[in-house]
Amino acid sequence: MTTRTVPTPTSIFEKSSPGRIACNIPVAETPSVDLNEAIGETRDSVPWPEIGELELVRHFTNLSQINYGIDTGFYPLGSCTMKYNPRINELTAGMKGFTKLHPMQPAETATGALKVIIAVEKFLKEITGFDEITQQPVAGAHGELTCLMMIKAYHDFRGEGEKRNVVLVPDSAHGTNPASAARCGYKVKTVHTDDEGNTDIEALKALLDDSVAAFMVTNPSTLGLFEPRIKQVCDMVHKAGGQVFCDGANMNAMVGVTRPGDHGFDCMHLNLHKTFSTPHGGGGPGCGAIGLMSHLEPFMPGPVVKQDEMGIPILDTERPMSIGRVSSFFGQFLMAVRALTYLSAYGRDGLPEIARHAVLNANYIKARLKDVLPAAHNRPCMHECILTAKQYKAGGVRALDISKRLIDKGYHPPTNYFPLIVPECMMIEPTETESKETLDAFCDAMIEICEEAVSNPELLTSAPTTQIVGRLNEAAAVKKLDVKWQPPREEATV
Ligand SMILES: Cc1ncc(COP(=O)(O)O)c(C=O)c1O
User: Fold this and answer.
1) If I label 425, which of 11, 171, 222, 274 is the partner at 20 to 30 A Cα–Cα?
2) What pTM was estimated for this model as a whole?
3) Mean pLDDT, residues 449-462 taken together
């Protein structure tokens, strides 16, 4: 076994020394109370840490530095777009005029906030080519669900709701796609991907009939590839009476360059928390804004922010065919502030640079790693590259081992084993914000690891060895979450 190189940090309880205290409390002027008597045995049975202020500050500062984040290192997690979140976004999102707004205050006293929503909408309409935008959904998956609910309302309105009970989803789709369809009450059927990584047209043709409510297409796909026949795909689905939804979580490959609304889609979701900054992950805050064509407008979630003849923002609440609210108020409003800051900072001319650099960076990594980790598909990728580590499997090294070894080299691992259709899949998304030096250092580390995979596989299979914890049983760690300190006991079990 390879030896671990870091000591396990001690808990604050182990640093405790009787009588130490981190603050000066004035002598009480009121009679003291015997806590044991007041709250029973609890006071003595809980081992309170007793520690001086300096040790206390060091303890928590050291703990905070164990964490890995986008501010401390490169984060190549694919499909999750962990990109730099400019500090100015936080400055604007923290402005009192926004943070001190009361959600219940009358709309006419919050016109500044409504103007922000309108300004973001204007940008997003221009970028996506859709007729309408709403920022109510609070996550990408929530945007998917909202679009499917609108599609369902549309089919119901046309009297076809009952017979159209199937949603088609590609085999490469993000797990949230079939989950959203099932949550909306649809049967899910899988559309296969062809050898080039595109929608298999024949497979799609075979599935298209009058039971199909919608096809959910991710473009660029989770294989990091642009679907070149997207117009044909949309036409085919429309001809069969279905709607086409675009999973636009990968919009950062297209922003300012090409527009899903021009490709034939009926609606889409965007992840403001991916494409328009605010790193993704950790459960929020997010905004899965959606774009839709005018035939779906009557069904969109209300209320809708509009402008009156004088240009003053108002709330349109008279929406009899709306699917209703999908979140309280207007979703995560401060996400709109961050997105507006980001969009305004880039401006019309700067926005296409996001996509160009995201695509350039991913292709650079793909090219530099081609000899050790070949791409799953031999064609230019979009904002992320999908590589396979299958050549190391016979020697006992899996994609996961390469990722774990990356931790020892100081990097967060990329996404593994997704999309499911690529064996020993490693999905790397560098994002547009990283420098060539960072990408080179990362690629050097990856090449070194692949050499180790052949010369000393155990280095990989026993990694990581430089962290507080070694290789976790990830399923057990999730299912038996153990995050609370308990008085000394037998060795930790995870
Ligand atoms: C392709 C794709 N679709 C949908 C989602 C769902 O987004 P969210 O996690 O915000 O629900 C993600 C998440 O990263 C994604 O990568």
Assistant:
1) 274
2) 0.91
3) 98
